[in-house]
């Protein structure tokens, strides 16, 4: 794990319409999501409402519904959707050769 | 004889129009005339009934206690006064002198007319059997008959309704609601045979019987027995049915006596031409008393058309009446029955049928040369208007033939994003309100004219002002026209679909769908993969419809059901192992104690459901915790699921000085037979050993209270914000019966409640009587429900913890990667 990007695994390790977490020692987890149309996003695993684990929510379209009180969070922007207000930090992520790569600086900043 | 008692205003030289009959057609004809030419005639209405103009159709709801007389008045006294109409009520016309152009009333009034309108309606047909004139034998036609029935119901006892058509069944329903023991005698083999086919008639009969009525088909009345007043009805086969009241509802005959005396041309009714003119050009006739082109009528919709043609003629702009097909709905709360057109089949006619036995739905559309010629709907009549519209317009349905039976929303595919597309797609001529003959175009015009609420539309154009069955459509039209300004529209499952919960379930069953994507595809979901509301619901509906065969989607389950533990606010989980009936053992307690220590669980507590809850377990540790609990023989307690939660018990007869039965033992048996099952919502059971009810069985979804002679079974209880005590479902004698009833009740709830609807709101929605009707009278139906429950249990009674403990789905417990910043920096 060197360079600007952290290689965290194969994209298939994240279920479609699901998520996995990346543990950051000394900080909050990062939740990595894969949508039904096979796009990958990463967010801090912490709901802007009351810190629910977004990785445990239901992924639909480009959003995730938080498991604690059902806020919907946009995976692309981290913004709460609909009536709710709040934002979760996003982490730049890309898929290359089937591997999921997380931006190192972004991860550190988000998890700090 | 008195002559012309009515003061004619001096200088009023207008022609005098006399209307005989203050009923539905007579007054509507006058309304239509006033709308065209308010000043043309001086109008007098003479009515036999001592009442103002009311909605005869609504006598059934008055009898059933759903409406009062005041609520069914169509035109009150002020209407007559405001329009300068003279009303002579309670004084029937007894003679017409055509040569002198006068009518004579029973009280002796003689009035001159220039034009005469006969609108005397029909008389109930009284079958000519001995005893037909006994006091206590009545028809069902006017307010006097309803008063008579209400007085009889007040005294209680038995009523026999002769005639299983629309009228008879509405009378029977009302009398039964009013507390009488009701028997319906019908001479034909199936009910409402003129409107329904055999299958629908049978469903109807079954439903009515479940509501406690006795229905005898093929029953031929021989005699009405009684000494001075009715006591019984005897059938030709000798059966005798006791009766304190007999209602004859076998049919109607046009009321033509007066016209016949006057020498008008009479067939079955008073013969009229297309402009409602009789054989005497000065005399018109309208309503059920007429015969047009060989036809007589018994429903209001064609009468409204006649009234329009008549008014056009009287106002000097003749248009002409054209008969149109008619449709029928039965006005019995909770029974949806619709029929239209011709469904007798015949040459070249093709049937398209959809049956859903478990939900009591039957639909049949008859198509001839690609055109709908008839439709019968039972159980779900939402698409009645659409079929009827297609039928009347004679439009080709060749393109949508394959999907026609699934209804408009489905057949018209596109436009799914708009939940009101169905109503939007109706043509302007489509009849919205059958009771008052109001088309979609007229409703829209009324809304455009400023009627921006349901009430305003009701008073503006009368749509939805009578039986109310079109209220949903009118609300949709309001919403369509006014956008966000009106609250309404049919309740859909979520915003991803135009279908409601029940529609989706019906389609899943009808088309044997197996997976969520399939449902979304076939039902035209508006979003690519649904939302957090519909996905869990669909997953449940699929598993309920095809246990063992459907494809479960873990990503569509709420986190607790995916993790088989309850998520806590800090992201850890709580673990509740099952303790059958609340019993435990040293071995289990030791295992729990060990888990608490080994995984540093910060808290363990006794729950309100008589279990032990271990808090603060990290998701990574869950499989290991489960392995340890499994080793001591414990399985998942499903404290996290929309599923059977706990069966609480009390000590019962084994120890307690008051106990009547082995409540603990029965509780364990019930939990053994029901654990693991998935439900629309969580489901709780309790068994108390005596009516002191220490296990609080009467606030559970299913509760058993043991008594000396057996087991009282209670349903629909709920704690929570709004506490609801249970209703008593029934009492049974043995444990075996209690277990079967429990399984059957659960299955009925599983199959019919909407996702996230607990038993309490479900029962309040469908009614305890309905639940009883599905579970109590028919042992075979009950056994079938229980059978389906046990079948589905074959697939759900394996411990989900065991598989995880053995290494299944490790991914969802472990992180995908770990990142240690310091190390990285180095
Ligand atoms: C653990 C327990 C409290 C306790 O420590 O005693 C409990 C805990 C919770 N209850 Fe409860 N209820 C517990 C017994 C009850 C009872 C008593 C009973 O079951 O006899 C009731 C009233 C009876 C009833 O259900 O009608 C009860 C009525 C509720 C309700 C209101 C239900 C309703 O339909 O209105 C909720 C809210 C809900 O489900 O939406 C609820 C929801 C919850 C949830 C699941 C809230 C949540 O979504 O996180 C709590 C989960 C805590 C956890 O993580 O474990 N809990 N809850 C009890 C677990 C019993 C068990 O052994 O399984
Ligand atoms: C209980 C019930 C439920 C019904 N449900 C439905 C339904 O759901 N849908 C539907 O389409 N139709 C229904 N109908 C039928 C509908 O009510 C009739 O089609 C409609 O009322 C006929 O209108 P009419 O004006 O021809 O007759 P009526 O409404 O009967 O009016 C005739 C009036 O003339 C009066 N009259 C008779 N002779 C004389 C005389 N010599 N002098 C003065 N007045 C006289 C009568 O007293 C009566 O008031 C129902 C009928 C009943 C009884
Ligand atoms: S409910 Fe009755 S039998 Fe059960 S413990 Fe209480 S008193 Fe005893
Ligand atoms: S913590 Fe996410 S919605 Fe409340």
TrEMBL record, chain A:
This is Nitrite reductase. The keyword Ion transport does not apply. It holds the Pfam family Rieske. One of its GO terms (biological process) is nitrate assimilation. PROSITE patterns: RIESKE. Keywords: 2Fe-2S, Iron, Iron-sulfur, Metal-binding, Nitrate assimilation, Oxidoreductase. GO terms for molecular function: 2 iron, 2 sulfur cluster binding; metal ion binding; nitrite reductase [NAD(P)H] activity. The gene is nasE. InterPro entries: Rieske-like_NirD (IPR012748), Rieske_2Fe-2S (IPR017941), Rieske_2Fe-2S_sf (IPR036922). SUPFAM superfamilies: ISP domain. It comes from Sphingomonas metalli.
TrEMBL record, chain B:
Its cofactor is [4Fe-4S] cluster; [2Fe-2S] cluster; FAD; siroheme. Residues 568-632 form the Nitrite/Sulfite reductase ferredoxin-like domain. GO terms for molecular function: 2 iron, 2 sulfur cluster binding; 4 iron, 4 sulfur cluster binding; flavin adenine dinucleotide binding; heme binding; metal ion binding; NADP binding; nitrite reductase activity. Residues 327-394 form the NADH-rubredoxin oxidoreductase C-terminal domain. Pfam families: Fer2_BFD, NIR_SIR, NIR_SIR_ferr, Pyr_redox_2, Rubredoxin_C. CDD domains: NirB_Fer2_BFD-like_2. [4Fe-4S] cluster binds at residues 650, 656, 690, 694. InterPro entries: BFD-like_2Fe2S-bd_dom (IPR007419), BFD-like_2Fe2S-bd_dom_sf (IPR041854), FAD/NAD-bd_sf (IPR036188), FAD/NAD-binding_dom (IPR023753), FAD/NAD-linked_Rdtase_dimer_sf (IPR016156), NasD-like (IPR052034), NiRdtase/SiRdtase_haem-b_fer (IPR005117), Nit/Sulf_reduc_fer-like_dom_sf (IPR036136). Binds 1 [4Fe-4S] cluster per subunit. Binds 1 siroheme per subunit. Belongs to the nitrite and sulfite reductase 4Fe-4S domain family. This is Nitrite reductase large subunit. It comes from Sphingomonas metalli. The gene is nirB.
